[in-house]
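Hi support team,

I submitted a single chain yesterday and got back a structure, but I'm not sure I'm reading the token output correctly. Could someone confirm the output below corresponds to the sequence I sent? I've pasted both exactly as they appear in my results page.

Thanks,
R.
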Amino acid sequence: MTMTQQRPFFIPFLVPAVLVAVIFAAAMFNVFQYSFLEFVPGSVEVGGFTLDNFARINRPIYYWVLLDTFLLSFATAFFALVLSYPIAFAVVRAERNWVRSVLVVLAITPLFTGEIVRTYSWMLVLGTDGVINTTLKALGLIEGSIPIMYTRPGVVIALVQFAMPVMIILLATAISQVKRDCEKAAANLGATPNTVFWRVTIPLTMPGILSSFVVVFAWTMSAFSTPQLIGGGKVLMISNVVYLQGFSSFNLPFAAVLSLIALGAALGSLGLMKLATARFERKLATV
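Hi R., thanks for writing in. Yes, this is the structure output for that exact sequence:
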């Protein structure tokens, strides 16, 4: 009696992922196609084949926009990492279950609030008569309002708060994989708690740190509503310029070029971080 060969059970679960990948590939192909078409002023229709859209990117204003996008994304990922690591560490290492539960709830609650709602909330906090300026004035620390809205620091503050829940989840996963025996061994050899943390815990969680950093960095590069509302048109990221070119000027071909550049920059950063993560993993494997 021969047994019939059964197909792997996981194949049906791949169908949704394949469909999403196909739709995404079709959309990206359409964007790629638009980038080689001629812009017709005053019309949403496009002309024939041209390379002028790629030549137009060679202007200082677009270099500055790309530089601002990189700097704001890097600053967001850095400060989100610094603020999220202690919280993630406490979530994993808390001895009492209720403390861990409270920290988890507080960490992920912002994910259940829409980005637009959170952005408008930050506008109330960072505004000229917002919570921060009003509090500082009431305490007598300042006389005039500190300009936070429509500035790069204001945009970074809001983006960091948006990124922290995801950063905390990723870091908590990495910290939970650290074997406590390594830390105990270092302590038994005379290492202080600070030395154990900086020389044992941090290196062992470095792949998770790099992974979470690059995830937040790549996500921030595509941020739109926060720099649009908090920046007020004075702080432009690549997504805002794509919106202005595509929906304000109806220059869809050039908007497609900017989109491809932003995608390439994000994928390039992901590749570099992947190489760095793999290097750390190989180094830790030899320890």
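A quick pointer for reading it: The beta strands are 37-39, 46-49. Let us know if anything else looks off.

Best,
Support desk
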